[in-house]
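Pasting two entries for a bug report.
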Amino acid sequence: MMTTFGRVWRTGFKNIFRNAWLSSAATAIMVVTILVLTFFAFSTVFVRTQLAQVRSKIDLSLFINDDATQNQIQTLQSKIGTIPNVTSVNFVSKTDALDRLKNSSSEGAKLAQSAQDIGNPLPASFEVKLSNIDNISATNSSIKGLTEASIVTDSSYDNRDDSRKGVVENIIKISNSVSKIGAVLSILFLVISLLIIFNTIRMAIFTRREEVEIMKLVGATKWFIRGPFLVEGALYGILAAIISLAVTIPLTRTISSFLTDKLGAGPTLQYFSSHFLLLSGGMFAVGILIGVISSWLALIRYLKL
């Protein structure tokens, strides 16, 4: 059994070199396919990560009247915390607001000094974190409906310019576009890979037709005859995955600084780094699957046993 298995693999390996040009074309297009799928996966994770980061930074700010007492502030904070969609409520005092402005930038420091000179007009506020930013309008209405909310003078939602919401919507649009383009390109190259490997195996069957007839006459099993062709297809996938990794790893290391500094892709790179074995296994799985399916279709169509 092991001897037969080994012979099937050896024959499949030799078949690759019998049609060098077709083998090269099949491997090359499969490399492109795997790289496109990898880029698609990276883009999807990157856009979703960026979207999650932006959405997490969007909260609801409630500005408090300067005359509000400490008891009123604590009571309202407790009430807000019980409202659905609210994950946390953080109180920012007038002093805290001034310190934040001072530490924000050099220009902020100048503004903070001017504000301090005139008695700090910055209001105290509540920063309300939401579990679902899409329900911010309903949450804002629920808070304003509280009896204790009489000390609230304004909210970031009521005074919004929709710029932050627009950022989220733009990222969602980009995410959807990336998904659609990636899916179309992936399907296109998958089909091309299937067709090229299909024709490569067809040519291999034609080239070895006399050898196949002899094996049939001496009683070779169907598995023994078909096996080398399936192995050939699988080897195309394995070779393509190795080349894809050889391209991906140094390329990622070369542009990692740019991706991190300019695009903020650090979390995405960290994700793929921590899941490197899964990514590599996926590359090999895709390559082998394409090769075996293409070979099997060619065998069904052209190899009559």
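Entry 2 (this is the one that rendered wrong in the viewer):
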Amino acid sequence: MKNFLLVAAIILGVFIPAGASFSFLIKYLLMGMLFFTFLKMSIKKWRLTKSHLLIPLFTFSLSLILFLLLKDINLDLAQVVFLSIAAPTAIAAPSIISLLKGNIDYTFISVLITNFASAVFFPVALSLLIIEDVFIPVIDILMPVLTVILIPFAAAILLRFISGRSNGKIKLPKDLTFYLLVINIYLGVAKASDFVRNDVDTDDNIIFGIAIAIAVITVMNFSVGYFFGEKNLKIESSQSLGQKNNAFLIWIALTFINPLVAVGPVCYIVYQNFYISYQLYRKDKEKVIASSSP
């Protein structure tokens, strides 16, 4: 039943976007989610796999190819498609995988690889393809990611060290990560909805066209990620390719391109959160079926 809270958070965010005023809390709630997630992670289990490298290779190459094919047809659409495919893994992905009882370590490595690779790829690609003479310092891309990841990571490592020294066992608050996710989804969707209502001044048909294109890309990203994943890592690989760092994309669009292009990641936020809601609902259902089996 609680997973319907995620759908309710999305619907409330779309139709009652008052929470946009509190969107500054998203970063801190995300850090809280990651802190509880990192408490469950073991550095000793870190392992680089083939799919870790396939994911950025696929996203960067396909985004470039589609941009070159579409730019003479519709430049705005080409830019939207480029950003939505090339985007790095969302910082929140390890927390979602934790709720799905998957391999947190795999997803965390994917977050690091794709975000560091994007810090190099995007400045070069934007300057060559989209905006001439643009200069995007690598540190401007990496710093928000590193801040949100490293602070809860260091805090979790420190707490585990202290707990180990005192022979204590860390007791995690039940479902706290889930409820932080619900709040974060509402705030994120509310911010996206408020942006489309107040900051995008264009024909509704264009927005509808972008929304359709992003729906196709969302399905493709999660599906291809599942295909790339090694045995027992299908869900983790799917999440790593499908769940995108949309806040980063919105910043790129608003800072270096134009507000219309930001509609793409705004739509992606809604779609990926609906899919995450479905994943958690399905996981919960599997748990109920397993517990009722003789």
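Dev reply: Rendering is fixed now. As a check, the viewer should reflect this: DSSP finds twelve helices and no strands in the chain.
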